[in-house]
Design a protein that fits this description.
49% of the residues lie in helices and 6% in strands. With 1077 residues, the protein is α/β, with parallel strands linked by helices.
């Protein structure tokens, strides 16, 4: 086909080649006459077809013949036959894509006779009865300080820990070990091995170490993948998984550490009160003495913490020395020859028969492996104590892996060593009576064989509960040790060191959380004091929480919750490592290589299992609190971007889904409008954006587009500056849309680029939405040609096209720019008290006046508007943002465009803002057959399952318009008419050459009927839809090279003049509705 140039000097669209989609060649036949209802309804021949059910049938349907509506290119392209437009009847189906057999749809079933044919059932027999037949047929990983830890028998630990502002203090390993070595080591370890035996006891310790070791490996990988700042576990989780996970676990973890202070202090106070009770020195009562001693202790610990990290570190060194001496004291005591009194209490030197007897488990009082494990595991939850002060470490990346893993190794070996020594020297039951010895001829059997072989008869313990032995006495470590008071001192050291570590950890983690401003109400606690930025306010808050729980006096119910809080942190640390590895982000490059993503995932699952093993209701409570905090942060959407692995996985998943979707052929049932909205800046045309957003909501693609017109050197800077700003505004204003901009020499070139290149795979726009150019009569020739050219391009690229017109216009850019300028001036004034240069997120880029004036305004009012007009414009611009009043959406479905004209208003009625607006459908009908046309349309709408309150058939559209209405059109186009008919041929040719864009008399004559139709339609619209909330009208198509740009604009203008908000819609003539399942 010959390529033509469009009227008015428009250039050819290089993106469309009409030879690829030739109009069909229609056969001359007597029986192919124009359908009377088409001619009679509109008063002239047209290739456009009125809506008809046959257009929506599947190929091979037996209930009716499938018809093919004229394609968009047949209506839009230039093609002539014998000098006239060919107007065929409904085009027969060419059976494309069909093998000649009926397709598998509801209507394909071959009808049968009543006798012996297919029997169909109602809902009772077919659904209800058939259904019956079917029916019957460990505080955080230390932010490692330690550089060296040398272990020897004579001098176990030598550490040099570099802190940011402390020269020679303890390191990560020290802090972790102090937190792991707790009262469990001296009070409960012997009981655990007495119940489980040293065989299962080793499993208990090893399983605990496995959990902490895996977590330590994951922590090491995370902390070596970038600079680690203050906040410990919170910092690492939040930077890996994002603020939602980090914010929820950070608050839980800080609170758990604060309550842990009370737990450790109460443990210390109970030991002190026991000593006071033994010496008859109680002050008031046992519970009140615990409260008094606890409050005094926490005040002293607070004073040490507030004094600074240097004093806290020195205190930790002192406590470590006491604790190490106490541990050594246990080992030494096992080699000291025992007295007869100790033997009667079940304590001997190393004996192989005792060791073998203690191998097997002997669970009593309803205990089991899991209950014993639940009691021991909190002793292993101290691995994050060093990491919590990561902000005070000089090199957290080196310190955290070394200190944490070494602390796990040392404490694990210590627990095993102490437990095995006790298992080899202490029997499970003993009477404490020195006279219970073996007499001659007595046979050793029962549960005390080892003691019997050593000369003691403890067989009475099988009948009556004894007071001594590893199961019965929690002070076994004191009795086994070489010097009992050292064990008491070690117990004091363990409890106070853990309390001090938690008292420092909680404010540090809480301060880091508050600095990120995830919970805005907590930002008050972000402020630090002194050279080390000490969180004094956080210390005070932690002190208040601790005292509150100390006054309770009994934390047995709360203890499991705290252990579960710690385990939840471990689980997320492991999951963070797995998630970051799984995302395969190029930014995931940890220096620590000894980790495995699947091992981390197993560690996360193991932590979750352990949570339920320890206490199932506490685990559920932990998850419930974490989910609530997660949802809160998710809803609030803090303005942070840490490059989390969640973003990376989302990207990978999006790419994978897009690729999967690209391999699936589009189906009419899954069609949804994907809108390319020419809004300009995201804030320039809010009414257009709001209506587009109502159509797509969260379920379709919406792209707000802007074209920067002018030389690239002048427009590129402004475009780049506005990209993030506009997308941020869309997100903050809760418009689920993307922003896209291009810089081109002309508006049409930019729009053409957007039409061709926007989207990805199947997620590409299929509908262009643009505002009506209200000022087309004054905008100039190039502006009108550019605007109409965009509409032609959209049809060429087979986009559905939607034009929105409102009485007051759409463009509020001049108001927005004025507001931004005022805000920027105020911001500059606030940020430059000393004449400094302001630099803010919304800083307006400086651009020349020339560039400002070249921004294309599709439907913008003059820049000089009085306040009253601006107020009306602003009010009109927000009309689609608020809930629509009760009323109607009037759909004038005049031409069958595939159903887009009906689908879009239906989608609107499903939105909350439009639920009170009812659909009314108007169609063109032939005089004398209105009722038949109405029934046909009613049947079609019912098959589409679209509810409408009324269907109106208008049989007066073909009536000529009134003289007054036509006079308005004549006045409208008068400046753009050539009036060449009164001139001779030469003059007329010269005039057409000089003004090729003007409307010729021949053109007016050729399209007189179609012009009259637009004028008449406006009259009918005024009569029937003047009070509608929204009017939907089938958009007329201007055939390229046949209809001039100004005449087409006049059609659109006169059609929608003086009406409520109006949408002109033209689909791409491919079905978007179907009545098949």
């Amino acid at each position: 086909m010959e390529r033509h140039r469009s009227v008015g000097g428009e250039r050819d669209n290089p993106g469309f080649d009409s030879t690829l989609d030739e109009p069909p060649v229609y056969q001359e036949a007597d029986h192919r006459t124009v359908r009377p209802s088409v001619v009679s309804a509109f008063g002239h021949d047209t290739l456009d077809r009125v809506p008809n059910i046959d257009f929506y049938r599947n190929a091979g349907s037996v209930s009716g013949h499938r018809a093919v509506r004229p394609s968009l290119q047949e209506l839009h392209n230039v093609f002539q036959k014998n000098g006239e437009i060919s107007v065929p009847d409904t085009v027969n189906d060419d059976d494309e894509g069909s093998d000649g057999t009926p397709s598998d749809d509801l209507e394909s079933a071959i009808p049968s006779d009543a006798k012996g044919g297919t029997i169909k059932f109602g809902w009772i027999r077919g659904v209800l009865v058939s259904l019956h037949r079917v029916g019957s047929g460990l505080p955080c990983f230390m932010e490692a300080l330690a550089l060296h830890i040398t272990v020897t028998w004579g001098y176990m630990f030598h550490m040099v820990i570099p802190l940011k502002s402390i020269k020679h203090v303890t390191n990560m390993g020290v802090r972790c070990m102090l937190n792991i070595w707790g009262v469990m080591l001296f009070i409960r370890l012997s009981w655990i091995f007495g119940q489980a035996g040293w065989g299962l006891g080793i499993v208990v310790i090893v399983l605990s170490c496995v959990v902490t070791t895996i977590t330590g490996l994951s922590m090491s990988a995370i902390c070596t993948n970038g600079v680690v700042r203050g906040g410990g576990a919170y910092y690492m989780i939040s930077r890996s998984l994002g603020p939602e996970f980090g914010g929820s676990i950070g608050l839980i973890f800080a609170f758990a550490n604060a309550v842990a202070v009370a737990m450790y202090v109460v443990g210390f106070a109970e030991t002190v009160v026991e000593l006071l009770k033994d010496n008859d020195l109680l002050m008031v009562s046992e519970i009140n003495d615990i409260r008094i001693v606890g409050c005094i202790t926490v005040v002293l610990l607070l004073a040490i913490s507030v004094a600074g990290m240097e004093w806290e570190a020195k205190a930790q060194i002192l406590l470590l020395i006491i604790l190490l001496v106490a541990i050594v004291n246990v080992f030494v005591g096992t080699f000291i020859p025992v007295t007869d009194r100790k033997k009667s209490e079940g304590i001997f030197n190393y004996q192989s028969n005792i060791f073998l007897e203690n191998f097997t488990p002997d669970f009593r009082d309803g205990e089991s492996f899991f209950s014993v494990f639940a009691i021991f595991f909190p002793a292993a939850t101290g691995i994050l104590a060093g990491a919590n002060i990561s902000g005070d470490l000089r090199d957290p990346q080196a310190a955290i892996p070394k200190g944490t893993l070494l602390a796990i190794l040392i404490t694990g070996v210590t627990y095993l060593g102490v437990a095995l020594c006790v298992s080899a020297t202490v029997v499970r039951d003993a009477t404490g009576n020195a006279t219970d010895i073996i007499t001659a001829g007595m046979v050793c059997n029962g549960s005390s064989v080892a003691a019997c072989e050593l000369g003691y008869d403890f067989s009475s313990c099988a009948v009556e509960k004894c007071k001594f032995g590893s199961i019965n006495n929690n002070q076994v470590m004191t009795m086994v040790s070489g010097f009992g008071p050292l064990i008491i001192a070690g117990t004091f050291s363990a409890t106070l060191s853990s309390a001090l570590a938690s008292l420092v950890s909680a404010p540090k983690v809480f301060q880091a959380l508050c600095k990120d401003n995830i919970y805005k109400i907590l930002h008050f606690f972000a402020k630090g004091y002194g050279k080390n930025n000490e969180p004094i306010r956080g210390y005070v808050l932690t002190f208040i929480i601790s005292v509150a729980f100390i006054l309770v006096g009994n934390l047995n119910v709360i203890a499991p919750i705290i252990s579960n809080f710690f385990l939840a942190s471990y689980a997320l640390i492991n999951f963070s490592c797995f998630h970051a590895s799984y995302a395969k982000s190029p930014g995931w490059r940890p220096a620590y290589k000894f980790y495995n993503m699947w091992l981390s995932l197993a560690g996360a699952l193991l932590c979750c299992v352990v949570m339920f093993v320890i206490n199932w209701w506490a685990a559920l409570l932990t998850y419930a609190i974490e989910i609530l905090l997660y949802v809160y942060v998710k809803v609030k959407k803090p303005d942070v971007n840490w490059g989390s692995s969640t973003q990376a996985v989302t990207f990978v998943s999006s790419v994978s889904n897009a690729l999967s979707l690209s391999g699936v052929e589009d189906h009419v049932k899954n069609f949804r409008p994907q809108i390319l909205a020419m809004t300009g800046s995201a804030r320039s045309r809010p009414a257009l954006l709001d209506l587009a957003h109502s159509l797509t909501k969260n379920y379709g693609l919406c792209i707000a587009c802007e074209v920067f017109e002018g030389p690239r050197s002048e427009t590129l800077e402004e475009m780049n500056a506005g990209m993030e700003k506009n997308q941020l505004w869309l997100r903050k204003s809760k418009r689920k849309a993307f922003y896209s901009a291009v810089a081109c020499n002309s508006f049409r070139e930019g729009a053409e680029s957007l039409l061709q290149a926007s989207g990805l795979g199947r997620m590409k726009p299929n509908t262009l939405m643009i505002g009506f150019q209200r000022n087309w009569r004054t905008a100039g020739i190039e502006a009108v040609q550019s605007y109409v050219g965009v509409l032609h391009d959209a049809l060429d690229f087979e986009y559905g096209t939607v034009i929105l017109r409102t009485n007051h216009g759409l463009d509020v850019s001049h108001i927005v720019e004025a507001e931004d300028e005022n805000e920027q001036q105020a911001l500059d004034k606030d940020m430059m008290p000393n004449g400094g240069k302001a630099k803010g997120l919304f800083s307006k880029s400086r651009k020349s006046k020339q560039v400002l004036t070249t921004r294309v305004s599709v439907c913008g009012p003059p820049l000089q508007q009085d306040d009253k007009m601006n107020e009306k414009l602003l009010e009109a611009s927000s009309q689609f943002k608020k809930k629509q009043p009760k009323g109607t959406i009037d759909v004038w479905w005049l031409f069958d465009d595939g159903g887009l004209t009906l689908l879009l208003p239906y989608i609107l009625t499903t939105r909350k803002k439009w639920k009170d607006s009812k659909l009314r459908i108007f169609i063109a009908g032939q005089p004398g057959r209105c009722e038949q046309d109405k029934q046909e349309m009613k049947s079609l709408v019912e098959k589409f399952r679209i509810n409408c309150t009324d269907i109106n058939v208008i049989d007066s559209i073909n009536v000529p318009p009134s003289a007054d209405s036509y006079k308005k059109l004549e006045d409208m186009i008068e400046p753009f008419c050539l009036h060449e008919a009164s001139r001779d041929t030469a003059q007329a040719g010269a005039m057409r050459k000089e003004h090729p864009w003007k409307i010729t008399d021949q053109e007016l004559s050729t399209f007189e009927e179609k012009t009259n139709l637009q004028v008449r339609l406006n009259e009918v619209l005024q009569e029937h839809s003047k009070s509608a909330n929204l009017i939907i009208v089938s958009m007329p198509i201007a055939r390229k090279e046949s209809v001039s740009d100004f005449l087409y604009m006049a059609w659109l203008d006169i059609l929608t003049k003086d009406l409520p908000p109006t949408l002109l819609i033209r689909g791409n003539h491919k079905s978007v509705l179907t009545f098949y399942s």
